Amino acid sequence: MVKKFLNIFNREISGLHEAAYLLAFFALFSQVLALVRDKLLAYTFGASYTLDIYYATFRIPDLIFVSIASVVSASVLVPFFIEKMNSGQQAGQRFVDNIFSTFFFSVIIVSIAVFFWTPGLLKLLLPGFANDPLLPDLITATRILLLSPILLGISNFLSSITQMHKRFLVYALSPLVYNIGIIIGIIFLYPSFGLNGLVAGVVLGSFLHMAIQAPFIISHGAFPRLRLYIDWTSIKKVILVSLPRTLTLSSSQLASFFLIALASLMSGGSISIFSLAMNLQSVPLSIVGVSYSSAIFPTLSKFFVEGQRSSFLGKMVESARHIIFWSIPITVLFIVLRAQIVRTVYGAGNFDWADTRLTAAVLALFIISVVGQCLILLFVRAYYAEGKTSKPLIINILCSIVIAALGYIFTKAFFAFPIFRYFLEEILKVSGQPGTSVLVLPLAYSIGILLNTYLLWHVFGRDYPGFTRPVISALFHSFAASIIMGYIIFVSLRFFNIFFTLEKAWGVFLQGFFAGITGIVAGVLVLILLKNKELKEVWAALHHKIWKAKVVVPGQESL
Fold this sequence. Notes:
With 559 residues, this protein is mainly alpha-helical. It folds into two domains: 11-33 and 268-545, no CATH class; 49-241, no CATH class. The protein contains 24 helices and no strands. The longest helix has 37 residues, at 89-125.
């Protein structure tokens, strides 16, 4: 029995949907732990200035991780590792050692430099904390957290080796233990060490993220060794491939960084509201977008290398249809049930009803771009499979600039034009609520993301003229069913309000749960009446053995 269980980690999977559902299964587990983590934070601090400080500590380490550690992600290194290992074990190990040594020395040097520059960088990049009495605490916590990009970078590197040996599920467990480490920090370390204990939990999670992969690599004698002499020829090839990907990720992080900087100038709790809502909207993004884009990447790469252009297009159409099939209903579900979702996940302890209302409003503005975020991941993977990294890079940089510019413009307009402020507050039902200026930040973010989606779709549709028409058909079906589902949920909320008290968290949950189930059933019935193709394919895929899928697990892309 034990042997059979362990063999799960060595099995392979074939089939797009089976692979995507397997990844979604582990993403769901990881997101559940992430929500437990966030609930503990919300329960302990509420949307408070203290929680603002905690989230602010991630900004600089996260930027280091994205700009340096993403160079050694599995999607970049696995093809190189396979190529070198085919040339011989010794040549392959030498290449592994070269890459590892280059990354390790680079991230150590940058982290040491940032350690000394932290006070000045925080004042420059987070101006709202420049003259704050808690700035010394923020500086210390940020310095402790500088260990995380080092550990997670090593973990990303090790994941390339484990996936090269087809031990895909080992790395799939890494996000789970990462969140467990953070939860340990909240429960056990914070009461004794305060903010430093919280970030120490993040460092512990980063260590566990790395350590879970080490036993397999050590047992196979594949653990990388540091080298002082480095072959820069092979390093240059890796950097040329990974640089566009790194710049793409960095531009997105810089846009988010700018929005956080604006939030630091707003009322206390704005960073917390922004971060908690963004974490909630990342749940469907991870389960749908990341799962499908990661599952399809190896297949797209294979079709492109073999010159099978029609098969390449067919898989892209299939993936886009199913991303839309799942993400539009989830978007409507989150918008209609936003208050119930936020109250169920975060509503306890110091996270009061005022925090719930504002976080729900911010979540609604974030969630309207989830369909776009999922499709962006798919388009970017498609271009990476082709080796064409310049198009997504240019579009992403342009849209990141748009997000930052809109964030600044909307912030100014919010205070300068009362009609703009009243419009946002009324449509999101937060009139009279303090701290509503934070609403402009997710609005800017979603507009930039939707522009990014449009541009990538337009460019890809021009490169592959047969892409748009079959996807639009799926879009119509999903949108029609989702609108009806949303209306049924809205009506059901009023009906179930009779049976459940909204003064308790369980009452809010049950109201939203039964209303949501009623709406989902109605949506499925509409799809059946429309003879929806995606629904039939989902039903067929669920009857396959999804644990036999061969996938490339996505690497950690932020702290």
